[in-house]
Each structure stands twice: as structure tokens, then as C-alpha cells.
Amino acid sequence: MNLNSQTSSSIRKPKTFNNPERFIEGWYWVIPSRNLRVGEVKPVTILGRELVIYRGKDRRVTTFDAYCPHMGAHLAEGKVEGNALRCFFHHWKFDAEGMCIDIPCLDTPPSLKLQTWPTAEKYGMIWVWTGEIPQQPLPFIPELEQKECDVAIHSPFLMNCHPNVVMINAIDTQHVNTVHKLPIEIIFERQELNENAIIFSNTTNIKENSSFIKLIRLFYKNAITISICYWYGSIGIVTLGPDFFHIHTMFAVRLHEGGKAEGQILLITKKRKGFFGWLSNRVVLWLTKIAGKFFLMDDIKIVQTIKFDLKTPIKADQSIMQFINHVERQQSLMWGTWQEARSRDVESKPKRERWQDTASND
């Protein structure tokens, strides 16, 4: 790889990366699934846009723009009826597709449709796609793509930097040695999973000159695996561990007002059968939490005070520059409006296949 070429393309001012007015079109977390009961409606604001979500009788979640098209009443004041939502003000009723299906003072309602947003559930979270038709599946852990999972969800957090900056911490190979003082030489290999997802993986032998390393060497044969899968530049899935035991942590972050990052941490493991399987998963998720705390304690001090500006990239920053370029190639939207921020170069990119989740609320 030509590092000079990579550096030259990366130090040009990015249009999307670390831009407080832009984010990547994709799936973004809303609230934990457990926080929305059947028949319940709630107001939410994500990425600068006010929305309303509700769970119908069929247990599926629906997302509308927040305000009634009649006089602008907030629909979160309304009532769920079956799988539809009725506005509190004049009792206009909208089905799960956003169509107005009943107005009490009219025999036939006018042809009127609310703005709806594709909504799905996975890993215990409700997710919303910020465009018309989902182009990609919900974010998943490559190693557990087709497997049922147990999940532990942490409390939401707020960081004083852009979600993109929170994300690059995991592939900053220098800080593994300087901040965490781990005797590991990390060299990431990049793999494009799809247009919106990229994987950085490293499997390397580690130095055995510390008592900690000599201890854990008893429990594995070859090397410690480190893999980070990114979706939309703001969801990072970290897989870490020796050969026989991998732990998975998802950092689901979205752009907040003022260029800050609000997010959720999800601890995830493969579902195991029976009582002992359930019990072992509690231990696995607890160990994942302990490992996460170890790495996050010092990192939080950095991301809460950093004013990111990569003016002098060096060879060790190669993965960070690759990540920035990956973000720049994706479709960006404007904060608040969710309108396209720039046009696509359709001649230079293959047409993306349309993807739709046939079971979007599994």
C-alpha cells in the first residue's frame, strides 16, 4: 500500500467524518425494546428529528414523524388502537403504514399519509432506518450472524465528541501500548463487508515477558483475536479473546446536538441452551463487562476532552485513515432534516441492491 497516497487523501478536510451537521444513512438505535410495551406510544428525538414510536397489538413497532398533519398536535399524546394510532386532538387515526383511516366528522377520510420510517428490532434494541428503503440488514456481529444471542444493555451515555471520533478509538493501535500498556503489537487488516460495513481484524502473537501474559497463555494455544466491525461510521462491534472464548461488545452511537455522541453499550454472546447455558451466559456477560471497564476507564478521559484534528498522520494511523475514507464514501444526510447532503457519483459506484427485512421486528 502507498502510505503517502493514503495520507494525502486522508488529510484533506473530510466532508462527513467528524462533521456535526452530517451523519451516514443507516440503522440507528432508538430505545431498548423492553422500554416500549404493547399499546404504548412514546416521543423520541434522534439525529435532530422528532419522532413518535408505538407498539401495536401485533407487537410490531411503528415510527412516524411526531406531528399530526392536521394542526400539528404531537402524536405521542395520542392512543394506540389495535395496530393504529389515534391523535388526541381531533381523533384522526393512522394505520401502521401512516395512512389516515378515520376522521370522526367525515364518512371518508382524505387520502393522507404520515411520514413513516422503517423500524426493526435486534439485540434488544429498537432501530430506525433514516432513509426510505433499507439498503442493508440490521447491524450484526459477523461471528454470530445466524445465531440467537443473549444481550445485556448498559445505560445510555453522552460523550463530548463526534460519534466518528468515539469509533476510531478501537483501531488506534498506538494507544493500546501507551494508554493501556498492553504488550501487543497490533497490525490491522481491512475487509469491506459491504458498502456500509468494514472490518478491521488482527490475530497476532504477543510478547510473553509479563506475568499477566504468561498466566493467560495457559488458556489458549495461538493468539489473541481482536476484530472491530463498523457500520455507518457510528456503530462499532469489538470482538476480543483467545481461541476458545470470544467476547463481543457493541458500541451503538448516534450524533447528538452540538456534535456530541449519545450511545448505548450492548454486551452480546451466543445463546446457550438450558439452565447451565443461561448461567454460563450470565458469567460471560459479566466478564465482558469487566473487560470493557478495564479498557474504557482511561479512554473516557480522552473522548470527553479531545478536539479531534488529524493534521500529522503517521504510518501507525493507517487504520484510522482507512476508516475516515470509508466514512467519506458513504451516503451522508443532514442533521435534523435527514436530507441527502451530497449527490452520489453513480458512474463510479455499482448500483446497490435493495434490501428489505421481511421479518423486521423479530
TrEMBL record:
<keyword id="KW-0560">Oxidoreductase</keyword>
<dbReference type="InterPro" id="IPR036922">
    <property type="entry name" value="Rieske_2Fe-2S_sf"/>
</dbReference>
<keyword id="KW-0408">Iron</keyword>
<keyword id="KW-0001">2Fe-2S</keyword>
<dbReference type="GO" id="GO:0004497">
    <property type="term" value="F:monooxygenase activity"/>
</dbReference>
<feature type="domain" description="Rieske">
    <location>
        <begin position="27"/>
        <end position="128"/>
    </location>
</feature>
<dbReference type="GO" id="GO:0046872">
    <property type="term" value="F:metal ion binding"/>
</dbReference>
<protein>
    <submittedName>
        <fullName>Rieske (2Fe-2S) domain protein</fullName>
        <ecNumber>1.14.12.7</ecNumber>
    </submittedName>
</protein>
<keyword id="KW-0479">Metal-binding</keyword>
<keyword id="KW-0411">Iron-sulfur</keyword>
<dbReference type="InterPro" id="IPR017941">
    <property type="entry name" value="Rieske_2Fe-2S"/>
</dbReference>
<dbReference type="InterPro" id="IPR050584">
    <property type="entry name" value="Cholesterol_7-desaturase"/>
</dbReference>
<dbReference type="GO" id="GO:0051537">
    <property type="term" value="F:2 iron, 2 sulfur cluster binding"/>
</dbReference>
<dbReference type="GO" id="GO:0018620">
    <property type="term" value="F:phthalate 4,5-dioxygenase activity"/>
</dbReference>
<dbReference type="Pfam" id="PF00355">
    <property type="entry name" value="Rieske"/>
</dbReference>
